[in-house]
Amino acid sequence: MEIIRNYIDGRSVEPRSGLYLDNVRPRDGTVYSRLPDSDASDVAEAVAAAKRAFPEWKAKKRQERAAILQKLANLIEGRLAQFAEAESEDQGKPKTLAERMDIPRAIENFRFFAGAILHQEEAAHQSTDSVFNYTLREPVGVAGLISPWNLPLYLLTWKLAPALATGNTVVAKPSELTPMTAYLLTQLLTEAGLPPGVCNIVFGTGARAGDALVAHPDVPLISFTGGTETASVIGQRAAPFYKKTSFELGGKNPGLIFADADLDAAVAASLRSAFLNQGEICLCTSRLLIEASIFDVFATRFVAGAKALKLGDPRQPDSFMGALVSQGHRSKVAGFVARAREQGLQILCGGEEVVLPGDLSKGFYYPPTVILAPDASPEIMQKEVFGPVVTLTPFRTYDEAIRLANQTPYGLATSIWTQNLNTAHRAARDIQAGQIWINTWMNRDLRVPFGGMKASGIGREGGRHSLEFYTEEKNVCIQI
Length: 480
Ligand code: NDP
Description:
The chain is 39% helix and 22% strand. It is an alpha/beta fold. It folds into two domains: 2-249 and 456-479, Aldehyde Dehydrogenase, Chain A, domain 1 (3-Layer(aba) Sandwich); 253-445, Aldehyde Dehydrogenase, Chain A, domain 2, CATH 3.40.309.10. Strand 2 (6-8) and strand 3 (11-13) form a beta hairpin. The radius of gyration is 23 Å and the shape is globular. The N and C termini lie far apart (68 Å). The relative contact order is 0.14. The mean pLDDT is 98. Residues 146-150, 155, 173, 175-177, 205-207, 210-211, 214, 225-227, 230, 233-234, 248-251, 282, 384, 386, 412, 452, 457 line the site of NADPH dihydro-nicotinamide-adenine-dinucleotide phosphate (NDP).
């Protein structure tokens, strides 16, 4: 059985307490590796190493930092198959999805920010003929990075790459549910040329290791992707230290299907947006709002499409969906559906846990589930399920569509389907969400601002937004 170890000061080390947690494989429910149950003493050791490494890393030429990150990207690319298999085994997602999406994106994250720092420009402002200002950007120090389990390496590297590129040193805490690809990454850091202490990865629970990182006085910056409730705890823990924080949180994302939409494209993309990665993507559509005149035809085609999606062994290339990440998460998803049923909502398909044959019988499978919801009031229309569950709701007017779309605490992403340019632009303006997609979904350009409104987050990641977050600005004013 693989024993995962922390990576501190360039070395693979045991947790000081000697305590480990079981790591469960979602596809068959077996414990297949163990990870450190790190505590505040491990975090303190990692932060001390990162603090020692900071002056030298910060002083490196940006070309040198970029070259190291490019090399790291190449090393991951050389082991793409190994990383993809590990991500699938650890998370439950289909291996083909990890091969096509998760690992290529992790590689791209490093390449993108390695390039971005070489093309960065800083501002200068001339006040009068004899007074001008220029702006310096400096890394913040030891960055604390906390990432979730749904896109483990993809989202960890989305933070690691800009933090390291801009000259910070790092202590990262991946989700305890999906440590494996972060562990594989630790095996490449020295070979890529990262000096000891620059990138430290500490494994363990949020309550112990995560909290110790957030509350450590020598960590001036916390970048967090995860649940809205966790963010509230982290915000309170970080506030007394005036830490810089970035929160990328949950969503209850609507898809708006207007009657003039290209129905084939809208149905196909909505199936993907509801069920890709078992619905475990913060950007997944979980509420489809459909213009009443096409509701029946859309619903019939969508439900038929959902039933046809192959749920199966994540190792098989034709599986569109694999297992949910954990038994606990599957129970949470099933609980939402059970309560919707108790409230009298009609389940159009799915809604029962799936038991696959043979050695997969103890895996955490849950089918694509479609629920009819009359309005925005039921719990299933308000709370994030983060699984393969989507509601269908008809709307009669544009105003009703917008009201329904905005009637949740969240504001992360929206997908709008219409052939009418006016409707598209109007809805883009009226909907409260950080990402608006028109006739597409999860179409990502790493330069654009990424993040959520309302309970979906604070701050933006991507391109210059990440470069700004991981640096402090200093204005210098000169009188000649
Ligand atoms: P959690 O909030 O439970 O956990 C996220 C990370 O925070 C994990 O590493 C977790 O550790 C850690 N953590 C938990 N409690 C604390 C704490 N008190 N102090 C410090 N760290 C802590 O989210 P999930 O992992 O369940 O991820 C799912 C959520 O993430 C969903 O709400 C989803 O929408 C959101 N998300 C948002 C994205 C975005 O970009 N907006 C993208 C992807 C997901 P551990 O797991 O070890 O307990």
